[in-house]
Amino acid sequence: SAVISQKPSRDICQRGTSLTIQCQVDSQVTMMFWYRQQPGQSLTLIATANQGSEATYESGFVIDKFPISRPNLTFSTLTVSNMSPEDSSIYLCSVGKTGVHDKIFGPGTRLTVL
Amino acid sequence: DAKTTQPPSMDCAEGRAANLPCNHSTISGNEYVYWYRQIHSQGPQYIIHGLKNNETNEMASLIITEDRKSSTLILPHATLRDTAVYYCIVRVALGATNKLIFGTGTLLAVQP
Question: Chain A contacts of B98, Cβ < 8 Å?
Fold first, then answer.
């Protein structure tokens, strides 16, 4: 199965700044997904990162706030823009492979916004 | 995707079987039952999935009722490392393009 790494693993940021989170997979994957997990909560899907086209965002999430790039089949980035303390969460990358039922998740990026 | 209902928390003694229930009364004929778990500070981990028949793998067993309106995940000999949040998810077969939507899950606390 695929192995996912995320950078950074954690960060503390100031209000109003932006942070770009990287997701790297050790093999080519069809789809990549970005999730947010607020403290004490379940995972919420932000968007699906499509290779070669714009990401598909879930209700409540917009491209201006969470721009996503997917330049190839093994890499994606999620930017959290103009951050506020409410953006403090764990951000997780997930991938799916054709013919495989389960999804693989990265270790997550723990973001704290002051 | 059909909605699932899980108890918010459960306790289990170490070495005993942990039985985690999930209700999915509106499940459709082509929807599978998937189970994932999330150990503290880690990403979710796939456990098992099934359509109609009971399933078993090296991690757990999945028992699905005949009417498919509920299921039970069984960890046969729970250890302290099984303490985690367990998510029951019902949806059509997961392919590479299908997204996974999480509910609130059950926090299983395995007690020594």
Answer: 96
Cβ contact A25:A100 at 8 Å: no
Structure confidence at residue A16 (pLDDT): 97
Residues of chain B found within 8 Å of residue A96, distances taken between Cβ atoms = 94-98
The 10s digit of each residue's pLDDT in A61-107 is: 999 999 999 999 999 999 999 999 999 999 999 998 766 778 899 99
First vs last C-alpha separation in chain B = 37
Over 60: is that where the pLDDT of B61 sits? Answer: yes
Residue contact A107–B43, C-beta within 8 A: yes
Compare CB distances from A42 to B41, B96, B102 and report the shortest one's residue: B102
What residues in A contact B103, CB-CB < 8 Å? 42
Please give, rounded to a whole number of angstroms, the shortest distance from the CA of B4 to a CA of chain A: 14
Residue type, B51: L
Closest by CA to A84, choosing from A30, A43, A38, A25, is A38
CB contact under 8 A, B96 and A96: yes
For B76, the token pair is 């046969």
pLDDT digit string (tens) for A33-65?
A: 999 999 999 999 999 998 888 899 999 999 999
